[in-house]
Amino acid sequence: PEGASLERAVGINSSGSSGGDGSVSRSEELTLRVAATVTDVLPNGVLRISGSQEGRVNFELRELLVSGFVRPEDISRQNEITHDKIAAARVSYGGRGQITDVQQPRIGQQVLDAILPF
Fold first, then answer.
1. Distance CA 91, CA 94 (A)
2. Model pTM?
3. What is the DSSP string of 39-98?
4. Rg of the chain over all Cα atoms, to the nearest angstrom
């Protein structure tokens, strides 16, 4: 009918805002020895290795992951190798816990931001 408008029949509005204040100061010095296992031996004898280690620091679970390729001749008699001898080294250090949780928006806010980004 004349005068009917879809705009009046269906209306969706959205608005959202986030605000926060705070600061986290963290200084970490990490000295670890990580056990790794050989996950593959390449045809040229190079070893693919992978290892991980977890620890708790101030109510945070910290995880260190290491992977890469090593030459058998670089492994010491004590069955050790320094990080600078790992080719294509991938080192990941991170964590989760109370401090990490407060540094990002809650899951509900993340969902709303994904559905209604503007």
1. 10
2. 0.57
3. EEE-TTSPEEEEEEEEEEETTEEEEEEEEEEE-GGGS-TTS---GGG-EEEEEEEEEEEH
4. 25
d(Cα 51, Cα 68) in Å, to the nearest integer?
10
User: Who's near 104: CB < 8 A, 6+ residues apart?
Assistant: 110
Residue 24 CA, distance from chain mean position: 18
Contact assessment for residue 51 and residue 32, using Cβ atoms and an 8 Å cutoff: no
3: helix, coil or strand? coil
Give the integer Cα–Cα distance in Å for 51 and 72. Answer: 17
Higher pLDDT, residue 97 or 4: 97
Query: Percent of the chain having pLDDT more than 90?
Result: 36
Give me 95's structure tokens: 């964590």
Give me the chain's average pLDDT, please. Answer: 80
113's CB contacts (< 8 A; 6+ apart) are 16, 105
Task: Report pLDDT for 30.
Answer: 63
